[in-house]
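[Discussion] Sanity-checking designs against the backbone

I'm trying to build intuition for which residues belong where. Below is a structure token string of 157 positions. I'd appreciate it if someone posts a full sequence so I can compare it with mine line by line.
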């Protein structure tokens, strides 16, 4: 940790600022598609892992129960996902991405890649690789400390 007592030099503050910048870039690039970073995360999770119950989606995307519920409700309202009763657990609904949702992700993914390029522009390629590796290491080691830790999938339906 830096020896500087300045708040602005603390790693936690710098991570928060980088997150603010990343969200701002995402909204700048993707505004015409009316999608948020959390909606993109949920839709991408459904593409990567297939239909899942709400708890599994939250675990895979590292979102808390309330947040994932709100995001899914908004996505369902826009017909980007479909939710049906689970065959295994009548209390659960299984969410799947619709064709409309798949088209949206296909349209937005190149923009999200551009967000990554823009946010990493001040760094050299090796620095990007090092930063990515170190952030992954920090995230993995501290996962259990999160209010919404990344968890393995609950079950398939």
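Best answer:
Here's mine. Compare freely.
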């Amino acid at each position: 940790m830096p020896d500087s007592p300045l708040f602005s030099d603390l790693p936690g503050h710098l991570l928060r600022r980088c997150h603010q910048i990343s969200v701002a870039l995402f909204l700048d690039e993707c505004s015409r598609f009316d999608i948020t970073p959390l909606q993109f995360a949920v839709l991408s999770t459904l593409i990567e892992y297939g239909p899942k119950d709400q708890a599994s989606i939250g675990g895979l995307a590292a979102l808390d129960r309330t947040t994932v519920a709100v995001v899914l409700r908004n996505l369902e309202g826009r017909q980007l996902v479909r939710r049906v009763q689970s065959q295994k657990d009548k209390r659960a609904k299984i969410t799947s991405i619709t064709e409309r949702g798949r088209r949206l992700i296909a349209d937005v993914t190149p923009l999200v890649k551009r967000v990554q390029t823009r946010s990493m522009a001040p760094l050299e390629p090796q620095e990007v690789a090092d930063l990515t590796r170190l952030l992954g290491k920090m995230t993995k080691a501290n996962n259990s400390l999160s209010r919404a830790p990344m968890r393995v999938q609950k079950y398939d339906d």
